[in-house]
Design a protein that fits this description.
single chain, alpha+beta, Creatine Kinase, Chain A, domain 2, six-stranded antiparallel β-sheet, five-stranded antiparallel β-sheet, 15 strands
Amino acid sequence: MLERSPLLLGSDPEFFLQKDGAVIGAERVIPKEGLDYGGTEVILDGVQMEFNVEASEDTYELGRSIQNGFSTLKTRLGEFPGVSLSMVECLDVSLQELYSLSVESRTLGCQPSLNIYDGMSQIDVPPGFPTRSAGGHIHLGLQPPIWGRRGGAYSDERRTLIPMFDMVVGNTCVLLNTGTEQAHRRLTYGKAGEYRLPAHGAEYRPLSNFWLRDYVLLQFVFGMAHFTVDVLTTSLKQSKPLDDQLMRYFTVEGVRAAIDKNDPTLAMKNFDSIAGFLEEHGRAYDPLNRETLPRFRNFLRKSNIEREFPAEGVMERWINTDLENTWFQFISRF
């Protein structure tokens, strides 16, 4: 049985605002100092905006922070008729709009990421580059034995975690979020293996903001993230090669191609190789386990997130969701 790891979950999901069907710079609505409600900051991030949420021990608290962010945003948008949330994940901003914004907003200023396969992922684009995308990075507040000091012993297994996340989280998300814009986004950033090592632990950076469409998608994605951390924690604490078992069929070429090209066919091949592990070790509260795996496959065959969680009405769905009584409702829809 996997051990439940002490873990803090966080994120800084980005998204766009639109008016009359066209994306506008978020600075037209959000003040430079940002907005703050219930510990959730709503701030500018280039053309787009983002939520800075509090670190949370579970997906409920994480969801509550994001719900607070949407409530704050709705109040603010009430002062700007015709402006609404856009859940487009990657787009080209019109040059007219781009050059009407402040230098800070039109500069693509994302700092370089590390990449577990190449060493560094540097965003290198010419001035006036119009493509912008909305990330949904996973922040992990880690503890020993993965990272940190306990007594006189220091451990740092954070880099071991990143390929595991590619296999379990990044690859599985390709099966859910099949839009072609993901491959376009990853020409610039969000490639397989991208990460940072902040003071709190690790940041996994390949995901877009697609999971921001609904609380149950957040539960799924961050539940899979917690499962992956639990696998490595159990392996290290119990000296069991569970991480080796999970990654037995991992190939850099196969997983990178599936994620970077957002190729669901390749992703399904990778997923099939770890399905037995998920079936054996997935617990009742994990998104994928012996009971839910067949239903998950059925969902992938018969439906998609666009149908189940449309991009329209995202803000209202979040605000009206009873978080306390929503537990992996996504699984019940399979």
